Amino acid sequence: MFDLYKLSGNEGKGSIRAIFTRELKKEFLESVKEIRSKVKLREFCENIGIGYTTFWDYSNRRESVPLFLLKELESISERKFKIHVQCLEAGTGPTKSKAKVVGELSEKLAKIIGAYAADGNLRMMSTDWNGKKVTHYELVFREEFESNAKALVDWLSDVFGIKPKIREEKNHYCVYISNKIVFRYFTDVFGLDPGRKTEIVSAPEFVKNSSQNIKKSFITVVLMFDGSVSYRNGYVELCSRSRRLAIDTAFILNEIGIEPDYTRLEPDGFGRYRIGVRKFGRLEKCLELFEAKTEKWWRLKEHLYGFDGKTKSLNILIANLDEHYPKKRKSTLSIAEIVKSVALLQNRGVPSNFSSIAESLNKSSTVIYEYLRKLERLEILKTERYGQGKIWLLSEEFPFPKRGD
After folding, report:
1. Are residues 115 and 32 in the same domain?
2. Domain check: are 33 and 65 in the same one?
3. How far is Cα 105 from Cα 185, in angstroms, rounded to an integer?
4. End of a domain among 95, 127, 146?
5. What is the pLDDT of residues 68-88, one digit of tens each?
């Protein structure tokens, strides 16, 4: 259980408040009666740093009450207010924010924390607002694939009751949250520090000490957001600048029955650490580590079991390969380029053997061979004996990536 009163600092108008429910209001008023029988209310208000008039307002007119006040009342009256608190608010006017109370570590909350470990950032900034200095609280997630960003928004909606918008920016999608309550949950309740975390981020202790399902949910989203599924061989890999996160990932994968095929805990030339899964049987287990119907889930599923669509049109095949397996950089090779190379050589009557394909693409032999093996396994290409070797030819009918909602 998380302690709600870790959010209960007395910050004046900026204090986080519990929104009254019928039960909470009843308990609150009963506790005030009890306190009146023990001490003078004005004396009580002075001791906790709140004006008597303000206290009267909370008792009679306002729709919410500061958590610090509930905490003080609970310590005197021995009533349990926390069980009646469902929603919180902070701020006033256009800066007011709201969120649901988060009492326990659920699988969806573990996924949100996994997304934060992979691609999240907490920022707290002082800005001018109508001539006054105010503190601005931000939680920002950046992710390459829109399907992952949409999944994150769904988890945030279920856990915190907020629905942030997804912004498309250059080469990524941004989920931006300006909500003091959510920010304080991350810092004061979950114990996550704002600012740069790239080299030091790890799985929080309360995640590592939780159930296997919670740990699995956390690592699922670390891999969804910060991991990769290779286009050409389907290998699943985490590449992180945090050695601690790499160690935690390897440990949790072993705990849930997926032993990494390699673990590199010495930094490469870019200061990165790597955890990878390569064997087919282990890759099959990895499929459940990606949220269904998100980009990397589709990529791994298609590598393991093939494409779902069928067509005799080369143009349809190429268009779908370009859409779902696009060229990442000018220097890299795409699956569609291999297919087009074979088609071009075949149309010219040139034997499409390994050397002619490699020469037409001007790429390393290892990369091309892995793509040819993949395309043959997907039954987009077939092979025939040719002299002492073999040639690759287009199949009569092409499987292609057909993804449903």
Report:
1. no
2. yes
3. 12
4. 95
5. 999 999 988 878 899 999 999
pLDDT at 404: 73
- 147 contacts 166 by C-beta, under 8 angstroms: no
In which domain, by residue range, is 363 found? 309-400
In a domain, 168, yes or no: yes
Give pLDDT tens digits for 171-203. Answer: 899 999 999 999 999 999 999 988 888 888 999
- Total domains present in the chain: 4
Q: Three-state secondary structure along the chain?
A: CCCHHHHCCCCHHHCCEEECCHHHHHHHHHHHHHHHCCCCHHHHHHHHCCCHHHHHHHHHCCCEEEHHHHHHHHHHHCCCCHHHCCEEEECCHHHCEEEECCCCCCHHHHHHHHHHHHHEEEEEEEEEECCEEEEEEEEEEEECCHHHHHHHHHHHHHHHCCCCCEEEECCEEEEEECCHHHHHHHHHHCCCCCCCCCCCCCCCHHHHCCCHHHHHHHHHHHHHHHEEECCCCCCEEEEECCHHHHHHHHHHHHHCCCCCCEEECCCCCCCCEEEEECCHHHHHHHHHHCCCCCHHHHHHHHHHHCCCEEECCHHHHHHHHHHHCCCCCCCCCCHHHHHHHHHHHHHHCCCCEHHHHHHHHCCCHHHHHHHHHHHHHCCCEEEEEECCEEEEEECCCEEECCCCC
Residue with structure tokens 């990932």? 249
Other CB atoms within 10 Å distance of the CB of residue 71? 18
